[in-house]
Design brief:
Elements: H1 3-6, E1 9-10, E2 16-20, E3 23-28, E4 31-36, E5 41-45, E6 49-54, H2 59-80, E7 83-90, E8 95-99, E9 102-106, E10 113-116, E11 121-126, E12 129-134, H3 137-149, E13 160-163
Antiparallel strand pairs: 1-6, 2-3, 3-4, 5-6, 7-12, 7-13, 8-9, 9-10, 11-12
């Protein structure tokens, strides 16, 4: 039995949840999210909680049970508090700036990289830190991974774009005879 799936998802005061079969819509102060869940789970709305149960006792449906509950919890958390992901730029001359709806990155290439931010994602730049925020956890993580992929950190000097909580394992350079 899923320990996570058994827990009900609490609905805060300012959040409005609409359950229509497997289609769930969550609206709150930070935005609105919709998601259509798989056939193996049932979602019921009670007074101030959402309860997820598997349709039957098959292995596949029990696997979807905990994931569906976590996705619901992330939706509720996203529209109330939001999610943020922080990236750091390490390298001489590496810089970033936000212009309109684009994130402009100078990462040591011959040209600046302009990355258009998807709808619902905002970026703030302070010195060498980029803070991406939004209500959709999946989209925030995707954008952070995409920005990191433009210049991933290298193991010798640690130059590149890295997550703020990422630890880069350094390698030793060349040794002389």
């Amino acid at each position: 039995m899923s320990r996570i799936g058994k827990k009900p998802v609490q609905i805060p005061e300012k959040v409005d949840v609409q359950v229509n079969g497997l289609n769930v819509s969550v609206k709150g102060p930070k935005g609105q999210l919709e998601y259509t869940f798989c056939q193996g789970v049932e979602i019921k709305k009670e007074e101030k909680a959402l309860i997820v149960t598997p349709c039957d006792d098959s292995l596949k449906n029990r696997g979807l049970w905990g994931m569906a509950r976590t996705l619901l919890n992330n939706m509720v958390t996203g529209v109330t508090d939001g999610f943020t992901r922080t990236l750091e730029l390490n390298g001489v001359g590496y810089k970033a700036q936000v212009s309109g709806n684009n994130l402009v990155l100078n990462l040591g290439y011959s040209h600046p990289i302009e990355y258009p931010l998807p709808e619902g994602i905002s970026a703030k730049v302070q010195q060498n830190k980029i803070e991406l925020s939004g209500c959709n956890k999946e989209l925030v993580g995707f954008v952070a991974a995409k920005v990191r992929s433009f210049r991933p950190p290298e193991p010798y000097k640690g130059k590149g774009v890295k997550y703020s909580d990422e630890v880069i394992i350094r390698k030793a350079g060349k040794t002389g005879k």
